[in-house]
Amino acid sequence: MTHDADPAPSPAPTLAETVAKLLADAKDPLKLADLTKSLKKAGFEPKAKQQKAVYEAELTQILESDPYLHYPSGLDGEERYWAKDEKAVLKAAAEKLLVRPKTSSELCLALEKANKKTDPAFINVLVQTLIASGELHKHPTNAETDPPRYATTEHVPVPTLAEVIAKGIKQRLVEATKPTAKKDLVKGLMPKGTPKEEFEAEVEKVFAELIAEKVLHEHPGKKTDQPNYSTTEHVRPPTLAEVITTGVKQRLAEEPKRAIAKKDLAKGLMPKGTKKSAFDAEVEKVIAELIASKDLYEYPGKAKAKSYTSDPPVAPAWYEAAAHKKSFDALLKAAKKIHDVGSHSLDAILEALREKLGGSEKAPEQTPEEETEKPVPPPSPPTKDLRIVIHEAYEHLCLFDEFQDRMVKIPRLYHETAKRFPGLNVEAFHQELEALDKDWKVELHKLNEVHLAKEKHLAIERGDRLYYFIIWK
């Protein structure tokens, strides 16, 4: 028969283990004397002097090592030891006490009352450190002379009546799908206990400020004195006159060189629901205003046949004037008939006319007004033969309906001249046109829509301008 051996006795706890248990179980930090007394009860009491020195050295080493913390928090600043961080424990206690803001003195007294064995000076230093580090936040006092109060949360000021109204209006503007009346924007925003007169006066101030800041924009309401409001600006629909003016200018820009009849000028511009009589009357007003502002020019013709363009009409040549047209046309027809027969050249016909009319005639004197408006430039050396051929080509092109207004395209004039002047090059052609322009014999007109130009190289370029048309004076 066998017997089990008795279990070995548990080893006695070491000094370090006993210190750890005593400091962990302590409700408050322990002074060295209190800790030594507790260790004595646990059986740690050296008898000999030599043993006592070793014991005290070992105890000091244990207390100075982690995880123990010690602060001069005992009465009169005596060191105390604990397994917990005494400052963290006091800080947590202060946060619980600061449910409502307190002065630093009130907080210190409350902490001292709950921690009677802790030095008040230690508590005061801790509180001042929390204030200086920003962990405690300053709150307003009841009076300017009162000491400051502190709490663990930042002070949130109570919004003013104006702030309450402004915030509510902005929120409703965000939610609104269309411009809203003032009464609907402020409905339900008046705090309880606020006099109605005070609230309404503050509403007016807030609306004025929001409009000035361009947060709020007025829109037409059902009544002129009761506008609606929105976060977007009100875009006024164009008036009938503005619709017509914009349309007419657009049409003129699309066809800058063509005279447009009145019926075509405003064609398709009448808005739906507009009476024709009202539209026609507005068209007349717009045309009169555009003519007055020199944005529109009227071409000669009867009332119904009048046409308009964005460029001033070019005065007709003397032979196109009513006093000379019939006679000149007859002369031109007779000269053309003689030339077409082929028996005589144009030079011969012109020379014969000069001879029969009594030789070369002196040019009429200019009036003072003409001299002021057009000073005579220095004459440029003419190249007579080419100049005559260019003029012949020009007059020939003017017989076509395309150039009945006598404004001829320079590229077309070049090709027509080249037919009559073998070996003509573009440079010589341009030089002669520039000479004619300097001598006031012709007028060169530019093309606004340069991208529409055909055979651009045959026209005359001056910087970023393209002179594409010519009128012989």
Written account of the structure:
This protein has 473 residues and is α+β, with helices and mostly antiparallel strands. The chain has four domains: 15-151, no CATH class; 161-230, Arc Repressor Mutant, subunit A (Orthogonal Bundle); 240-309, Arc Repressor Mutant, subunit A, CATH 1.10.10.10; 370-472, Orthogonal Bundle (Arc Repressor Mutant, subunit A), CATH 1.10.10. It has helices at 15-25, 32-41, 49-64, 86-97, 104-114, 120-132, 161-175, 182-185, 196-212, 240-254, 262-265, 276-292, 322-341, 346-356, 368-373, 384-397, 410-420, 426-438; strands at 30-31, 69-71, 80-82, 137-139, 149-151, 180-181, 217-223, 226-230, 260-261, 297-299, 307-309, 408-409, 442-446, 460-462, 465-472. The strands form five sheets. Strands 12, 13, 14 and 15 form a four-stranded antiparallel β-sheet that branches. Strand 10 (297-299) and strand 11 form a beta hairpin.
How far is the N terminus from the C terminus?
152 Å
Structural class assignment: alpha+beta
On the 0-100 scale, what is the average pLDDT?
Answer: 84
Overall shape: it is elongated
Helix content: 40-55%
> How many domain regions?
4
Describe the sheet with the most strands: 4 strands, antiparallel
Uncertain regions: pLDDT < 50 for 5+ in a row? 366-384
* Continuous helix count: 18
Could you give the topology of this structure?
Layout lengths: L14 H11 L4 E2 H10 L7 H16 L4 E3 L8 E3 L3 H12 L6 H11 L5 H13 L4 E3 L9 E3 L9 H15 L4 E2 H4 L10 H17 L4 E7 L2 E5 L9 H15 L5 E2 H4 L10 H17 L4 E3 L7 E3 L12 H20 L4 H11 L11 H6 L10 H14 L10 E2 H11 L5 H13 L3 E5 L13 E3 L2 E8 L1
Helix pairs in contact: 4-6, 5-6, 7-9, 10-12, 16-17
